[in-house]
Amino acid sequence: MKDYIRKKLYNDLWRGLRGKPNLIQVALGPRQVGKTTLALQILEHWKGEKLYESADQPSTPSLTWIAGMWQKARALISVNAPEVLLILDEVQKITNWSEMVKKLVDEDRRAGRRLRVMLLGSSALLMQKGLTESLAGRFEIHRHFHWSFSECKEYFNLSLNEYLYFGGYPGAIPMRRNQERWARYIRDSLIETVLSKDVLLMMPVTKPALLRQVFGLSTAHPAEILSYQKMVGQLQDAGNTTTVASYLNLLSNAFLVAPLERWSGSRIKQRGSIPKLLVLDNALVSAMSGQLFKQIKNNKSLWGRMIENAVGAKLYMILQDKGVNLLYWRQRQEEVDFIFNFGGKVYAVEVKSSAQKATENALLSFGRKYKKSKLVLISPIKEKMTPEISYVALDDFFENPDIVFET
Questions:
Q1: Separation of alpha carbons 110 and 324, rounded Å
Q2: Do 63 and 136 reside in the same domain of the chain?
Q3: 362 shares a domain with 288
Q4: Nearest to 226 by CA among 291, 296, 276, 155
Q5: Number of domains the chain contains
Q6: Are residues 246 and 124 in the same domain?
Q7: What is the DSSP string of 190-225?
């Protein structure tokens, strides 16, 4: 994968590192999606002095480690190398990291040093907390999510159905010919690392076993609306709805699961609503299911939820960059899979996995209730049957997810 460059992410970071003002460039995203690889690609192409170091070590470094790396980078600045690139990986693991970085950045500004800084992190909570508390006005965030279908198709020659099962963790995809090995890798090297290390760094978890059960429950119900009371009823360890909600929030900040709120047209009503569980990559669902590709593909109900979940995860990633929340809508027996408000317009997106004629009543009901909303139906076959609805073929969406905004 070292030879594959995620062009948009690379170009955005490169422009940020070379442009004005000189802001800290922050690459934020899940583990094992290629943040470090991309950083090393930038390091390789940087013409000048540079330094890369990682805080992802068996024993978490102290604040003096940050100061030491910074001093090493400063020492590289010279008349012949006025701009030096410093990349620090997984810096959020160090307690009070942002206060030290602020101190060093401000020193450089006062001294007129042209040190270009890039920070990588896999914890949304720890990174954003540090950035907003200490580094306001000094950083620019680049969100690096799981690989898209287009990227997996281009590099791994994945079909859409394979992508819907194996997901977008590039380090695991080469193992897909041995599905049991692939699943073990996802569970042991990825999920277990995040649950046992990253999540516990965010805040104390009094019931680690319950946290794992909440994650397992989420992967067993992708793209399903599940009340907190029902979740508590299905969990073996003692817990309450507040604990479950807090653990789902932790899993969201670790880029594993996102609980979507219900759209009501009012933010007050949305808070505390029954969540819709969105798993942020289908690989997590497949690996935890214990089922092979053909088994899940032949299970129409589960496969339908996998398709809906993959569409929702992609929309969630796109909207995160736009600062927009992804929601769902339910009124009595009617439900629309995904709702969001962007550019002064409300979008209602329904996903259908079957090639049969889609049921459009819920979309139309939503459109009647919320006038001038944009109604979109994504299905395997693009069929224009109702003029009020924009139809998008499933493969067209995954080839170009922005088509939702263009229809």
A1: 36
A2: yes
A3: no
A4: 276
A5: 3
A6: no
A7: IIHHIIIIIHHHHS--S-HHHHHHHHHHHHHSTTEE
